[in-house]
Amino acid sequence: MKRFNQAFLNKKVSPNLGIEGKNLLPKFYSRRSQAGFTLIELLVVISIIALLMAVLIPSLARARIQAKRTICQTHLKQWGAIYTMYTNDNDSRFPPSCLDPEFNPRGSGTWFVVMRPYYQDPEILECAAATKAPEQRPERFNNRLNWRFSWWGSPFTQLMQENEEIAEIEGSYGQNWWITSTEESDGGAYPDKNKFKRITEMRSPRQTPMLGDCGAFLTRPTRDAQPPENDGDYIYATSDEMRRVCTNRHQTGGVNWVFADGSVSEILLKNLWETEWHKNWESREITEWPDWMRSLPE
């Protein structure tokens, strides 16, 4: 193909067209090359972008949820290793209760305090899917939020005064109180006979949760506890402590927990009442679920 230039055009254009005629074709191409998109072309481009966004945004949202869930499970896996080291160093015993009288100052037996030598970064106390805790203790708790240790104030005042780091601790996980090694008075809703205390006392460590998604730093699930009327809501001063765990925090219908064998699994919310929380646990079938739970997987 011959090169498109002014000399070539001058040879091929008829002399009858005159000087303006000779420049007609170059001017036409010059104007066309400087023109922008037409309205129709712009609409087509915008439609394609909108279509791509409609396809990609839900996928990105799902990927973000999955990433947070993975971070949570990674943190719990680390806690599984920490519990293993602790029980190996303490004659198979689990950490004590937070109010164990043998620990001074009061509260220094709390699991994340007594196991502090076994981890470096307090951020592993937090689930990536939980919301940061407010400074002041809310009137109603919600286990979609982090908890702050300072919310429990008076029993642990001396501990927090002596250790500023503990005073600032916030987290998203709670310990299954039924594994704690402290001797309790055998009576009431939380009898000592139901506690494991040592990992060697467990029939199947794979079936017993140790630590996981929770709206407080400990929970004492009982068979008769009722599911919350709203996702995540609970009142701290009640015996329905299963509510501290029952939250759709990960938007999967389940919560992440590390079990006594160190494995991490999701417990479906509707299966919480079938999980072996203590030695003498009896499963309970619930037939009437609150509205927010009815569509969750089983």
- What separation lies between the terminal Cα atoms? 72 Å
Low-confidence stretches: none
Strands of the largest sheet, in order across it? 6-4-5-8-9
Counted up, domains total 1
Describe this structure in words.
With about 300 residues, the protein is an alpha+beta fold. The protein has one domain (about 45-295). Helix content is about 30%, strand content about 10%. The protein has helices spanning about 5-10, 20, 25-35, 40-90, 110-115, 155-160, 165, and strands at about 140, 145-150, 170, 175, 210-215, 220, 235, 255-260, 265-270. A hairpin with a 4-residue loop joins strand 8 (about 255-260) and strand 9. The longest helix has about 50 residues, at about 40-90.
Task: Kindly list the characteristics that best describe this protein.
298 residues, alpha+beta, 5-stranded mixed sheet, two-stranded antiparallel ribbon, 9 strands
